[in-house]
């Protein structure tokens, strides 16, 4: 039989050609099913893949922004760009530019297929965009191997990059002027290092430890049935660093700052209660110069629409908002009514005054890190005569240690006598 088929094929070119075409068709038909199955097998068992799409409002922009940070991805010659606003208070590009706020542009691989080497590993990416009633965008990242830690590392690195950028800023909130009682993020300010605030010996450690204990003691407050809140009063002459200390503490503890002016438009008995009950989690409520609004129980300005009793009720109401911290500052603590600063409303008091010797030396070292010169500088100046703001202003103008002494009308130490000194303002 086999010999007959061979002899027939050999003597009949039509049959031979048809047989070849039939065999080729069979192979093609087999490949039609086999190749996709093989591809599925390979993708499932020797390729790792991760997918993220824009339905995830946090992770998707995080990955896109991270691509901008990786040089290998920015070298791809087809890319897309997106602008990221510096703050949630964005009104218009013109308004932001007038205030010195610029949007940031992030480049990332464009729609389509891209192959690249990342950290010594061959990887590829597919970016898809579909437009319908909404825009749906998806990024699929793949690499050879079944070890998903490579892709997990990429995602975690993207998250850490964004976290580091966000934590490098401090969120400042103000009352939303368009609603009854909530907050809007006014801006993202630069973190203020706590080490940059030079207080009297032990003061920084004391208040930082107290704030840390408060946040660590939620369970204890719950067990004792005490509202989990804390009130602080910082008092002292202008320029002693009250507001700066609050900002630095917020930066150190990764807290928001909700700045509240009692004379702001629309701050009434009704609205302040809503505001203090809707404070963002882990926030400091900062009420500066409280003596400028109330002396004893009297309003100090016609702009203040808030009553003293309404203010006290709002402070007590914030107790229902777990974890809130109230900082009040004043230049004249003696003018404050006892009801305002009683225990339960104010739990911690600290006076910030003119510079003592410790502060003078510390502030000198902040600008010129020479311990011996710092001690000489502090010893030459009278204690309690200058505010930290006044000392900082003069030291900031001094471009050298010798000039720092001149700025304070002090004799320049012998070792610095030959240094160039420019005392002009």
From TrEMBL:
<dbReference type="InterPro" id="IPR014851">
    <property type="entry name" value="BCS1_N"/>
</dbReference>
<protein>
    <recommendedName>
        <fullName>AAA family ATPase</fullName>
    </recommendedName>
</protein>
<dbReference type="Pfam" id="PF25426">
    <property type="entry name" value="AAA_lid_BCS1"/>
</dbReference>
<feature type="domain" description="BCS1 N-terminal">
    <location>
        <begin position="22"/>
        <end position="197"/>
    </location>
</feature>
<feature type="domain" description="AAA+ ATPase">
    <location>
        <begin position="228"/>
        <end position="356"/>
    </location>
</feature>
<keyword id="KW-0378">Hydrolase</keyword>
<keyword id="KW-0547">Nucleotide-binding</keyword>
<feature type="transmembrane region" description="Helical">
    <location>
        <begin position="12"/>
        <end position="31"/>
    </location>
</feature>
<dbReference type="InterPro" id="IPR050747">
    <property type="entry name" value="Mitochondrial_chaperone_BCS1"/>
</dbReference>
<dbReference type="Pfam" id="PF00004">
    <property type="entry name" value="AAA"/>
</dbReference>
<dbReference type="InterPro" id="IPR027417">
    <property type="entry name" value="P-loop_NTPase"/>
</dbReference>
<keyword id="KW-0812">Transmembrane</keyword>
<dbReference type="InterPro" id="IPR003593">
    <property type="entry name" value="AAA+_ATPase"/>
</dbReference>
<dbReference type="InterPro" id="IPR003959">
    <property type="entry name" value="ATPase_AAA_core"/>
</dbReference>
<keyword id="KW-1133">Transmembrane helix</keyword>
<keyword id="KW-0067">ATP-binding</keyword>
<dbReference type="Pfam" id="PF08740">
    <property type="entry name" value="BCS1_N"/>
</dbReference>
<dbReference type="InterPro" id="IPR057495">
    <property type="entry name" value="AAA_lid_BCS1"/>
</dbReference>
<keyword id="KW-0472">Membrane</keyword>
<comment type="similarity">
    <text>Belongs to the AAA ATPase family. BCS1 subfamily.</text>
</comment>
